[in-house]
Amino acid sequence: MGLTSALFGGKLRVALVALVLVAAGVGGAYATGVIGAPSVDRVDNRFAGVNETATVIDTDLYVSNPNPLSANLSGLEVDYGVEMNGIRMATGEKEGVAVGRGTSAVPLRTTLENERIPEWWVSHIQNGEHTDLAVDANVTSETLGRTFEAPEISRSIDTDLLSAFNSTETREINAGSPVVSDPVLYVNETSAEWGESTSERTALELTFVVHNPKPYPVAVSELGYDISMNDVAVGAGTTNSGYVISPRSTETIEATTHIENDRLDEWWVTHLERDQTTDLRIDFYANLDAGGTTLRVPLDPLTYEKTFETDIFGNKASDAENGTATETTTEATEAAATESAATQTSTETATTTETAATTEAATATETSTDAPTTATATSSDGGTTTTDGGLL
């Protein structure tokens, strides 16, 4: 063996032995508790942008290093995932992370493909308008040969899109035609519930209790509908009713409408652009055969409007106040919006005028000349706005 080979071969062996000893020393130090294990203290998520095809999610993983020196012996690998009702919505990872002493924020950015939104929507509806959000994160140390998981982060996201459609308010249906007197019908009750949800579309089962005040039968041959969310058309069509309402009698009409799920990724963009707020609207019309005349009648009194909000990561308030987003482990809370109306009543006397605010509960009595009885309509405040603690 030459001098050069012996010299450099010896140095190489020394270097390898040194590396082995260092690794063994680190592993032994960890095993004996001299070196502490890094941990993930919390995970902060926030929506950072959205376009027609993708949603950007920014994440900060707060990694704690209890050691006096850098934990970046051979680099740390950090990864996380976001699931909604068991559906993986986003996944992020980062390698070669250097973590100094104390707690460090490791920034991550990942993309949620908007085409996943319809699958989540179906799960949300099938689960009773409920979503379980779960965020899991962990740190892997190559040097220590271990993975350290973050505390489980979960949230409940609930919406209530249809309950306000359930109403016993009586509403007049006017044809606005010279060939028949108004009202041509009364709708005394409405109700709605979700029907079958498939990957293609979501069904809404609607029920209308309709009274015919006329001395002749009125046929409802067709019921049409248009559904929009933030002005994005998500459903339209007609149902062949085939209902005939006998003179001065009441009939229950059932109809199935559909939301086309392939339109929901477009709606999702508007939902995020409006700070996770959506205006749902359903418009109706009917084809009526009354007194030998076929009429297309807009059912404006049945127009349904509902505003709902979501708070996916539970940080809308902190976003507005501080421009930051903090993930929490508590469930989303619902803040139900309440409305009240005040009617001012004035009484004048010779010496003083007093004004008192009262709560108005108005009822309007609608009388049909053709009906044997009087139909009573209760006043409505139009669309209902609620805060539901969270839709995607």
UniProtKB/TrEMBL annotation:
<dbReference type="InterPro" id="IPR013990">
    <property type="entry name" value="WHy-dom"/>
</dbReference>
<dbReference type="InterPro" id="IPR004864">
    <property type="entry name" value="LEA_2"/>
</dbReference>
<dbReference type="InterPro" id="IPR013783">
    <property type="entry name" value="Ig-like_fold"/>
</dbReference>
<dbReference type="Pfam" id="PF03168">
    <property type="entry name" value="LEA_2"/>
</dbReference>
<feature type="compositionally biased region" description="Low complexity">
    <location>
        <begin position="323"/>
        <end position="392"/>
    </location>
</feature>
<feature type="domain" description="Water stress and hypersensitive response">
    <location>
        <begin position="40"/>
        <end position="158"/>
    </location>
</feature>
<feature type="domain" description="Water stress and hypersensitive response">
    <location>
        <begin position="187"/>
        <end position="305"/>
    </location>
</feature>
<feature type="region of interest" description="Disordered">
    <location>
        <begin position="315"/>
        <end position="392"/>
    </location>
</feature>
<protein>
    <submittedName>
        <fullName>LEA type 2 family protein</fullName>
    </submittedName>
</protein>
